[in-house]
Amino acid sequence: MSSIFEEAERVFEIEVKWLNSMLPLNRSSFPAAVELLNRSKGKLIICGMGKSGLVARKIAATMTSTGTPSYFLHPAEGIHGDAGILARGDTALVLSKSGDTAEIAALLPVLGSLNIPVVAMVSNENSLLGRFADVVLKLPGFKEACPYNLAPTASTTAMMTMGDALAMAMLKLSGFTPEDFAEVHPGGSLGKKLLMRVSDLMTSENLPLLSPESPLTAAIEMMTEHRGLCIATDTESRLAGIFVYGDLGRLMRDNISVSGLSLKDVMIKNPAVTQADELLALAVQSMEARGITSLVVVNENSIPLGIVYLHDALALGF
Asked: How many angstroms separate the CA atoms of 66 and 58, rounded?
């Protein structure tokens, strides 16, 4: 078993070596590549063959989801009609370790005829692709993690990481926000977390409201009927405090009799609250940080509007 783990260590060591070398190797060309991509008036077309093509697909997906419209163009399909997606004003990002792949070579004249600027990820700057590109993001000349130096391994990891770096730099330049991300991911869990507000989940009917002067026994009865929470409000309907199961448990632990006590004697004053328009994800984060299971939702005048429960949010995947 140790030899198996040693093989994993060898692979990680090689891939980390590639990653550590990638950015210093492109200290000047990376900003130039981002500037070229950012100047594009049209689409970003991303190309690659084989394993590089799979990485290119992923980079295109990441770019598109973070505000840079991008399309993957398979070089072999491109020279058989799919190059029709190309147009003047587009920019191309082309991935090829060798830079001399036949399908890539056949596509370059098409890019040239449309004056499409090219950023290349390539190991050999003197390759056909390296010489053709406007900006070269150079891959290190190290051996792959494959023991025979055949299967693309470390090189595709480096390409993937460089693609992520380009996408994040483009995101920063474009001012792309979490709300923008949510708009293009409305069905995903990330979109849900970024779009849902407290008002979308809070309970607002039949709230467990009592006067602070109410007997504690009445508060306990109301609390048991309303998911472990009772809310105290003053004469102007503003939040005065809350009483929860944990408070009752502490009274029992300390052998304190509830007889004769009023709600104001034991309620939590100035409890944590939230607002209806707050992101639900932030409300969940607040509850988890405080170790509580509910928050009272109040308006700008501290009047309770509802209750948001941690369990309800967790049921939705938060």
From this structure: 12
